[in-house]
UniProtKB/TrEMBL annotation:
Swiss-Prot/TrEMBL keywords: ATP-binding, Chaperone, Cytoplasm, Nucleotide-binding, Stress response
Annotated PANTHER family: HEAT SHOCK PROTEIN 90 FAMILY MEMBER (PTHR11528)
Name of the protein this chain belongs to: Chaperone protein HtpG
Nucleotide-binding among keywords: yes
Homology family: Belongs to the heat shock protein 90 family.
Binding site for ATP: 31, 35, 76, 81, 96-97, 168, 315
Database matches in InterPro entries: HATPase_C_sf, Heat_shock_protein_90_CS, HSP90_C, Hsp90_fam, Hsp90_N, Ribosomal_Su5_D2-typ_SF
Gene for this chain: htpG
Tagged with keyword Cell division: no
Name of one Pfam family that matches: HATPase_c_3
Amino acid sequence: MQKGAIRVQTENIFPIIKKFLYSDHDIFLRELVSNAVDATQKLKTLASVGEFKGELGSLDITVTLDKEKKTITIADQGVGMTAEEVDKYINQVAFSGAEEFVKKYKGQENGANIIGHFGLGFYSSFMVSGQVEIFTKSWRPDTQAVRWECDGSPEYQLEETEKTSRGTNIVLHINEESEEFLDEHRIRTILEKFCRFLPVPIKFQDQQINNTTPAWVKKPSELSKEDYENFYKELYPFAEAPLFWIHLNVDYPFNLTGILYFPKITKSYEIQKDKINLYSNQVFVTDEVKNIVPEFLMLLHGVIDSPDIPLNVSRSYLQGDPNVKKINAHITKKVADKLDEMFRTDRKAFEEKWEHIGLFVKYGMMTEDKFLDKANKFHIMGDVSGTEYYTLEEYRTTAAALQTNKENKLVILYATNTVQQDSYIKAAQAKGYKVVKLDTLVDAGFINQMEMKWENVQFTRVDADIADNLINNEAQTQSVLSEEQEGKLKDLFGQQLPQPNIKVELKGLNTAEQPVIVTRSEFMRRMKDMAAMGGSMSSWAAGMPDEITMTVNANHPIYQQILKEGNGDRQQKQVRNLADLALLSQNLLTGADLTAFVQRSVELMGTE
């Protein structure tokens, strides 16, 4: 029997390991199973090159729970170890980085993330164990099986033992503080989280818990549409089928495989981030992929796998890692290329998916300039009827003749609510204008960004002014009323306005236009919309009054009749009702004013 002290050149490492791993201490199972997979894969390699000439037999890795003995055993039938190898890999190599580890990370919260980075993965077992045993026999012929034991102090013992089969069994004697891990459901949950796609069969209580050949490790040519959809169901059993997917398969200048799915997303409450899982050689690492996947694609679902990303690293490490930056850029390019291909090869199908795709595309155009350059070719705007779609250049070609303002900017007219803004849309369309629908949760920000990024483009909501003024605010109109009548009408409206911040204008519009049209300043409305979303100037803008313009169509026949009424209560009520109707069309009539409008309308009908 060999006894000795583990080579640690600093203070006892075990309490430090326990401290650093405490916040995520179920990681021990991932580390030990991953080691077992490595041992198994090494044996396969030895067999493939002819060094191992024996029978491979079953290569299953088993995890066994014994509640009575309070043990968890991880057993593999891989390469195993000789006594010399145990001394080298367990007693020496595992602690070669111990001093650096302690010096660099002592007292930091994120120490758990770099355990494996220093070869300390095996020793994470002491987080939950009062004693750990290793029973191992090497694949090499005529070697003696050995047993290693340690109780969490620097002292260990190594002795010969009886073991007939090749491979390694790690036996964890669970300590009192960690008896939660003696629960079968808990162990199964951890294995399903970390090990569900490992390349070697993992069995727990005689049931295999993993799919050894998930879709992303296969070639796209080997997979059908049904295969991709079935894998999506495996990842997200209760989700609706995805729109489409992108299969990643890169081996230079970095290794990256994976499948990214575009889910159906139309409403803000459906949005769920952290649905992409990061793997390293099929071992689950994290679902926080913020630095690896571009921000605008965080809403995608699926899997990415890269052995070039270390299993256990801090987030600050990820931010500075050159491979991570390359992977991020590659994913952006692949997504842009896929969308461009879909747009070019089947535009109709692309347009049908736009309601869901548009959120990703707009978010990407706002945040990634390289994506913006590509997306300008396939970003589309749907008209309010939902039948026509335009790229920016197509809209420019179609609308520029009528919708270019005096600053030579293309004015893109848009609606955010086609029902509420219907009368404004019809008035704009009557002039030949093209009105698009921009009603998603990112459109307010998108409009502001594109006015800065697109050359000579201005967005104007269709209810920001009367139709005559939407493009150029220079409409010269002729009123049929006399100067005296106009003065009387303006006074009537001024006396009846329910809100002090309304500006009244009289214009001689077409007789078919509404008698009163209420519009809100595009600038101030945008400021208030952004304030409602919690922008940087939210408190200032939210407190500002609406800039409301009430345009009275002096040419509407109703005013000839009202002016004939003479001064009186009915005349004032009619004017007030016309003003209220216009405010109601913009959702600006509420509370007591709305109640009074209803009561007044009933009174007026009774005096007809």
